[in-house]
């Protein structure tokens, strides 16, 4: 009778399946790697690395792992709770058609979305070209000399403009005058940012601006109610007082109205969202800042410039890096780090695809629809102002009745007051929309084309655009889908992203961005919700946000989370503001000293100074650990003024400091709060929780630990997590009461990418998250161990083990051979690898963070490359390779160099191109040779390169960039 037992359905339904897809090594490999380290199990290894004093006693209270099918079905049901209405709300967000070729080949393409910030210039030429196009587009349309490569949103860009004006203006007033025609969310963020740094924001009518003593003004053009005002005289008056003129504007409108540069603007900001990037309930979208040449060296954010490579050929690189917070630290003027690169690429490609004529046609068509609607509303007795582009402020009406009728027709209008509404038209608007909108006001359009024939444009005659824009060939070539497809493919092929190789960047956690996590982002139920849509249309978003907040509370051990900050640095700022407001609420507003160890990430001191805090730097000991004695001494010294300690845990040196609990106690004893920078949470999730060991607040980087891709330098999400006593001071939502000010333009920041992190946590469940952390620790220690005989590892922690990253010290080799960390980084390109983090946190070192997602095969490939490189360095040491003319100093090698008839080097071509046999099967060729950093900073040129330059006439772009 006894039959062999068949496996049951339950056996065969493997619910943890995703965990094994996310985590690189399989269990056999994990066993083998543990063996190399001399541990029996992941738990034993974890106990050896993580101090008992911080380890969580119990597992996370999260659901068990789900399969991809199950998780997608659950999030589908959540998405279906959102209702997609036709949106005419405007207020900075407009409907747009994402060209499908861009949707699939940029937004949904890992070659673009898994790329890292282009610090390694040679392997980032494709995305930097896209960003140069973005900068050119913005500079052309705004009429400014130079533009940066994106900022987080229009409101924070306006705040950066305010800070730039403060630094640069001759006028010494502390007042910043903001027009009441500026978008209200921008005014909110300006008020937050001005508080505590000695700036007074005065909001008033345009007419009062000229008479106000101020260091600068902010105008909106067209303004938030749609009016296009002539600000020339006002700009002259502000200049006469020594103030600067900042203008928030709309790129589509600028294709038909005069650029702010033409009438006197000094700084121009805005949002490129309507160039092909969906609403996404508020973000992410690429904002921008452009300015006059005079201010370029103080401009915040990243700036792509054109330099040359060692062959003298044009090559892109990040320029003017000295402005960055990484270098300037507490003297930094902005904390911006992660920005919105992927969205900037999308917007730039929208312009490349449509070209100047296409953009103008979209703008004119949008304007025609607005003009027709305005005429019919006036005919029906409503009042609509005279000069507009796409937005009508309809006054003298029964607004509640109109909104009620609109809701019945699944239409959203902007709420303003009881007797007026706002209507913004856009690229997606149709004749049917205009007819339906008119009907809401009892205006009945019978023949819209006949009406069209009778109605004139409503653009102000004195402000029509008469200067050309987007004349560069790149905006006039790729207009067919084939052309754009191949242009995109060609650019992506120049770059190394996670779709080709591990990116072992320390502190950046370049882990898998799983396809299933990405899929919901472009669903219309998430993509097409306006951030100011009525709450009852966004109940799916509410559920998603509530659930994600609860998951993050559980992972961190804090009590409340705000998802509003749209980068890690913004999360730092929000957390420090919460600390400041907490002290103020207890009558201790004088507490203004922030202790920050010297090993901290540059955004930490930058964020502290933006809150008006004084940064006091504390020392690290010889092992790179924070010096507890120094913290104790400085906490004592500044006891009366101590506001906070900011500490990164595990430390930027890849070590779990033993004393962290004691450090928290010391700070609390002196009345301070503990801020733990959570960028390294990938070493903690499921193992230890900062909220439980004494820390008061952390930001997380969802674009590191929780799988949102880096996008080439953004988007990101930097949730701020706090203990309950700080919760009342978290950022408030737009239009809500609350003690914390808004830190981003949208209530939930970059809401449309939150599904990625929700999916990750749901797919991994309690056990998967813990295992991911443990394998992240394992992978880092495996690399450190296998490279031990070849390189020095700086700063190992307990039991000779590192945390989730390790620092390889190249300084001894540099002294002996002249080969430094940068040469190794560039040589790795010849092996098809993205370099580890170069010279941070310690100059002359490489910081390696493999993450849990890299398989043993990929780790071994990297280790083999590093060992071969060590052999090459040894050959230099032993005189077998020349000290100057060796493959390290000349890396990376391009195909052009290696195939040239003349080979000038003292080492063979084969060694240059194929240092390992395996490279003959698969080879990445760097499109440019090593890029000259100094040239690019001396000759700042930040827009599209004239084609002649590629033919050898380098001088063509060495002139200052003047529009
Ligand atoms: C990445 C990082 C930050 C900043 O995050 P952004 O999202 O780039 O603003 C802050 N601290 C540490 C330790 C980081 O690694």
Q: How would you sum up the global shape? A: globular
The number of E-state strands comes to 25
Helix content: 25-40%
CATH architecture of the domain at 91-293 and 315-321 and 339-515: 3-Layer(aba) Sandwich
Termini distance? 89 Å
| Largest beta sheet: strand ordering | 2-8-7-6-5-3-4
Attached small molecules: pyridoxal-5'-phosphate
How would you describe this protein?
The protein has 963 residues and is of the alpha/beta class. It has a domain at 91-293 and 315-321 and 339-515: 3-Layer(aba) Sandwich (Aspartate Aminotransferase, domain 2), CATH 3.40.640.10. It contains 34 helices and 25 strands. The strands form five sheets. It has a seven-stranded mixed beta sheet with strand order 2-8-7-6-5-3-4, sandwiched between helices. α23 (603-610) links the parallel β16 and β17. The longest helix has 39 residues, at 341-379. Bound molecules: pyridoxal-5'-phosphate. The site of pyridoxal-5'-phosphate has 15 residues, from α22.
